[in-house]
Amino acid sequence: MKVLSNPPENIQIHAYLLFFVICNVQIGVGIFNFERYIYQVSKHDAWISVILAALFTHFVMWLIVRALSRYESADLYGIHYDLFGKVIGTLFNCIYMLYYLCITIVIMRNYVDVIQAWIFPDIPTWLIVSLLSILTIYAGFGGIRVIIGMCMLGFVVILFTVFLFYSSLKYAIWTQLLPIMESGVMDVIDGAIRMSFSLAGFEIILFIYPYIVNKERTMRYSQLALLFANMVYLIIMTLSIVYFSSDQMLRSIWPSINMLKIVKYPFLERLEFVVISVWMLMVLTGILINTWAVTRGFKRMWNLNQKAMLLIVIALAFGTTIAIHGHTAIEQINTWLGSGNVVFSLIYPIVLSGIVAIVFKFRGRKRPDSKGGTS
Fold this sequence. Notes:
about 70% helix
């Protein structure tokens, strides 16, 4: 496998499109229930946990982009091959591919859980997963540019949904934010760690970087995307704290959806049904990006056809998703994956950027060539 990746010009993208991609991978189905997980440990200081987690993601993104800029045009698969060699590099790549497959499964199952709880209680799991799988295959066959186009549409859905939360301001009790830091430093930090499940995904830039034409603007748009996504989470977290009482927050499985129940128009009631249905586009973009990262690994390491691999990946995701039963099992898997997010999205990128800096300092100004050597 070559270290450097040079996609054809006709499928390359401009750096500003990273804004839409990163926003979509960060703001997914987890936006419906992330508040409760953080509130369990941070209480009314949960908004501080969101800010701490946000600042840390900006720092990690800065490290990632700096590490990528040391290569002319390489993704994570190539960087692993360059730093650790063929055997260990391939092992690390396979671990990341398995991780993104698990992310895909969790996204599917969480969305199905929301559909069954709020709209169609008796609908079978396999039917919704089949619909998501067919749409993923259809859009995934179009390649990375089609996926990014879907992300741009998803951004419109994000703006539409966030705007609807303004209705909760009428019932806000702002004194519920006080006193500040009553929960304790360690509880606030624990809440920030729990935010990792919702904020994870920005490391997808490690795979998209070779496709960017104007790479010098990568840092600007990736940081802007993080800023927007983090502001969305902060706004929703703050509104949830001032809208719900402490007991209500802890009892609500999906606080964000509960807040949308109060939004009513003369021509439309039960707006949460509309939001949940439209949110399928956001779920689909998350699935598309993650499955693309997996199939890209097959293409890079073994030169296998991405479309054929997409069918296999979707088949694996489909079979595993329908095998997960019950909300308790889903929450347990979310907890496990949350721990994995801390490693794959936060800790490992920091370690990797440090290794890249050390290796390049040892090499001097030499960069790896397309065959894995230095030039």
